[in-house]
Amino acid sequence: MTVLNPSHPTSRPGLDATPARPRRLPMDLLVHGFVALCALLIVVLLAGLFVELVVGSRLAMKTLGWRFLTSNAWNPVTGRFGVLSSLFGTLVTTVIALALAIPLSVVIALFLVELAPPRVATLVGGAIELLAAIPSIIFGMWGLFLFAPFMSDHVQPWLQRYTGGLPLFSGPPMGVGMLTAGLVLALMVLPFVTAITRDVFRMVPGVLRESAYGLGATTSEVTRKVTLPFAMPGIMGACFLGLGRALGETMAVTFVIGNDHKISGSLFAAGNTIASTLANEFSEASEPLYLSALIELGLVLLVITFLVQILAQLWLNWMGRGQEGGR
Amino acid sequence: MKARSVRRRHGLDLALKAFSGLAAFGGCFMLGWILLLLLGRGLGALNWDFFTKLPTPPGVQGGGLGNAIVGTLAITLMASLVGVPLGLLGGVFLAEFGRGTRLAAGIRFAANILMGVPSIIVGVFVYGILVKPMGGFSGYAGALALAIIMLPIVARTTEDMLRLVPGSLREAAMALGAPRWKVSFGIFLRAAKTGVLTGILLAVARVSGETAPLLFTALNSPYWNRFDSLPHLLGSFAQPTANLTVTIFNQAMSPYADWQRSAWAASLLITLGVLLVTLTSRFLIQRRGR
């Protein structure tokens, strides 16, 4: 870059004040300052999110203390609140979603990059990208009116019959519940992870794959022994981003999870997530403590997604640097 | 490595190919299913009244979601008016003025993280900074929430698109004595305009289908915004404002069949709108690629 761009060194602050260009300096400085402020707004907003949520949840923190983090109570009447039941639902649905979406995404990306003829790949890839563009509330409508009845009529009775009464699949097959929410969530994360995985697969050097094919390896062997190991760091990054998305997804989950504040060992049971609790109860919370507890719930979600995003960014940065160094 | 029979290796290969083809087909099937479902259940309820009338109580025939359509358009427009210019300028800083500095790297990091913050959290934030101090839900609060979601998206795509412009353009302009800000805005931003426009369209598409950040900012309303005079118009957006997505949520969760039918029609409308904007942006990219 520096070789191609000789003007670059002059843009350093120490060298800018050369007498050759004194007149345009004020305007340049002004514009520089203004666009820098706009960009800094992003940092201010991110910091503001934390500040506002901490301030908003102060009342709950003072009243409930650490019990908030260790209790599964949720009773606006008696003023007892705890994060556990919502956190439990958030984690369970996310795990179900990722356990399904990641393998499927990798396999679909494989189809798009290795197997499909270019035209089919463009079409199918485009369709999956459009799936990512569909608003989350539409997945909620589909989940509530189509998928949940399908689950209660067919999938859940089938699971109960053929798993021999596992506690995981016990209870009445209501359709709505944590399993259904996890499955809908999987469908929403899928296009997202697929798109990134496809791009990562495309970066695998053709020479590597071709040499493996030349040695007589089959497509599945090339995939397992060459493409996947090479693409693994990128797929990891995609998983982190999918994780962040699944944790905070609100509307689709709110439609199909049943919205019940309890922790149940059965995936058929109704539950809730942090995001769905906020969506359902926030605008109705009239008591200051109730509202504050909800904001603290939001703070917990913000901290979790923040950590996941930081890990994802650090991982992707590290990966990018590693690749540049290797070239 | 264990030696395997050729037959087994090919069997495994075929299984993987079949499975991956099936999974890809499954993805397309889901898109088709959802679109057909929306058309099947929503198209019947779309008529002139749907676009021009106010919602009726459950059980009362007629009525529409005209106020929610106008509200969604207005809130998205206001959000874009705030989010797009700020994001654009921020992107110019990241790609041009702050290029290679630690400050820009830090801001880029923050932008990526802000993009990953759940949209419902942005709703809680705006509730705290705008709804509570103003003493009520308002269309402005909804627009602000959407603008906050747009800002990092527009900034990052603008940056990425500006980076694609060849550096020789900058050198040529600077050698002619053009000041830096003119190079950035007059030449670089203009050279990257298709890509930047694509990013803006994608950001608009993304936020116009959002529900969660509007739930406790714009809320919803059974009334029209007032368009008879400017003060009335501005005042009406300081009240709870009708919008399609929250209406879908309220009507779909209700037990009334006619409300649910209207929710399907609204779902069809919002999906068509979002997909149309998304496809437009894709078309722009492809045309530029040729």
Topology, element by element:
The complex is a heterodimer of chains A (327) and B (290).
Chain A: H1 13-16, H2 25-56, H3 58-64, H4 67-70, E1 74-75, E2 80-81, H5 84-115, H6 118-133, H7 136-162, H8 178-203, H9 206-214, H10 219-248, H11 251-256, H12 274-281, H13 288-326
Antiparallel strand pairs in A: 1-2
Helix pairs in contact in A: 2-13, 3-13, 5-6, 5-8, 5-10, 5-12, 6-8, 7-8, 8-10, 9-10, 10-13, 12-13
Chain B: H1 6-42, H2 48-52, H3 66-97, H4 102-116, H5 119-134, H6 139-163, H7 167-175, H8 180-191, H9 193-208, H10 212-215, H11 230-236, H12 244-252, H13 257-289
Question: What best-fitting shape of chain B do the alpha-carbon axes yield?
Answer: globular
Proportion of strand residues of chain B:
under 5%
What level of helicity do the residues of chain B show?
Answer: over 70%
CATH top level of chain A is: Mainly Alpha
Strand content of chain A: under 5%
Largest sheet of chain A: 2 strands, antiparallel
CATH topology of chain A: MetI-like fold
Write the H/E string of chain B, N to C.
HHHHHHHHHHHHH
Radius of gyration of chain A: 25 Å
What is the number of E strands of chain A? Answer: 2
As for the number of domains of chain A, it is 1
Brief overview:
Chain A is mainly α and 327 residues long. Chain A is built from 13 helices and 2 strands.
Describe the model.
The complex is a heterodimer of chains A (327) and B (290). In chain A, helix 5 (84-115) packs antiparallel against helix 6 (118-133) and helix 5 (84-115) runs antiparallel to helix 10. Residues 1-22 of chain A have low confidence and may be disordered. Chain A has 327 residues and is mostly helical. Chain A starts with 12 loop residues before the first helix and ends with a helix. In chain A, strands 1-2 form a two-stranded antiparallel ribbon. Chain A is 73% helix and 1% strand. Chain B is 76% helix and 0% strand. The radius of gyration of chain B is 24 Å and the shape is globular. The mean pLDDT of chain B is 91. Chains A and B meet through helix 2, helix 5, helix 6, helix 7 and helix 8 of A and helix 1, helix 3, helix 4, helix 5 and helix 6 of B.
